[in-house]
User: What shape does this take?
Amino acid sequence: MESVATGDVRNGEQDIISWFEDVAENASRVQTQTLSRILELNSGVEYLKKWMGDINVQEMEASALESLYTSSVPLASHADLETYIQRIADGDTSPILTNQPITTLSLSSGTTEGRQKYVPFTCHSSKTTLQIFQFAAAHRSRVYPIRPGGRILEFIYSSKRFKTKGGIIAGTATTHYFASEEFKIKQEKTKSFTCSPEEVISSGDYKQSTYCHLLLGLHFHDEVEFITSTFAYSIVQAFRAFEELWRNLCNDIREGTVSSRISLPKVRKSVSDIISPNPGLASWIEASCRELEDRDWYGLIPKLWPNAKYVYSIMTGSMQPYLKKLRHYAGDLPLVSADYGSTESWIGANIDPSSPPENVTFTVIPTFSYFEFIPLYRQNQNCVNSSIDDFIEDDPVPLSQVKIGQEYEIVLTTFTGLYRYRLGDVVEVAGFHKGTPKLNFVCRRKLILTVNIDKNTEKDLQCVVDRASQLLVKAKTKAELVDFTSHADVANQPGHYIIYWEIKGEADDEVLAECCNEMDASFVDQGYIVSRKTNSIGPLELCIVDGETFKKILEHFIGKGAAFSQFKTPRCTDNEVLLRILNDCTIKRFYSTAYG
Assistant: This one.
């Protein structure tokens, strides 16, 4: 007989799926209504008044308002809105971007462009986060049912929040969410509870939090239903740490103690209040880890968490390089890609959780924001007109007019005061779910390598690194690629690409030199090929960095206020501090001979 809790969860899941099916069927109309609602809520604010004048939004018909808005308000970047947001941060309480007072600002991770940006955060932000988490969980439970009352091993981390000059609370979006009432509601609604208490999540020290997440995950090992983190990177880092820490963890479980490496009093107490001596469990974990060590930790997750159904995290874009290692830890356990969003807004959900991360699509939820899409067309490869990338843009189109197979940049109008805001993400329309598009994430527009007429995206870089790292496997070395980044060196002539690799294990110089040549030869951009043949771009340089390098980069960003759970390794950088770290840590250099 089905329990009351199970019945309640299933009824709630069916309700939210039915709601979405209705809005998806009528996505075009819902989008028009969503824009009307945003403009009604923020009617008369300074930014909109500048472009739309003193129109009475409430008296306008919705489709006419949509037409007026998109023809009157220009496309905007964060730079266009920065002075408005800064005034809010400095304490200006007049209706600048929203009529609702903005009491909280989110900080972007800062790993894309080298600096963190303020983005307005309101109760709407937390509510949509709760909504998309419930919605995605409902779809996952259809494919991978979990037990109500089970545990989630969540590698989640808050960073410190602070007050701006004007008294506005600022912090990362994940930090705001984990501190919100909605985070607690999510656990109650889904009947799945995180292993770690709030003190662990908000410790501010990612190493101590990670240790406690692992310790409590092992304590609740037979109750854990799935393993998750915001980004795949955090899960991989946690289990890399586990390889070094398992003996300490076993000792804590055996004795019911908390390691001296946990120095924060509140964290120590919160964990001590949960665990108790369990010699039997410690012996089982110890035996399991010795077995796992012999197979290089393959299948670590299902071995230690036998009731886990899947691993859930953002696995697209800059997270793809970690999939190989994550699959190694997960063994036969499914990897489920989490949903698509940004600090500015949630965008789409993964409604086909059985799809592998490489093929995942995100179905746009038309109530979250008003979405427009700028059609992007690849230029003639030898064209040098664009200083940003190799795209030619067309006029933005609404959600209902996108075409399958076409690439677009997403434009957002949000409830939080961003108007026709260029997100910078390139997506491809893979299909439709009823009336709403399903998107493939392609890349960030600004993350590119370019010296002159060459233009290579993050995706292009990922492809050549994948090809070259396969040579480590073919050569039967014991080395594996841990992480990478790149830099277009234009300070020296001819300019050239530098790609930095951190590898674990040993590889012969001959193999690494071959990897360098393989990357240089694998870029297919015609501008790059022509430039290499004429030596207007010099030989690609592969720098091997020591084993702690990318940890130092992580700690640099965390020191600047980034949250560990929001960290993404920048795949291309001009940041002087990062380049200094990379160059100081370089232990070997190889120069390509692929073009002679």
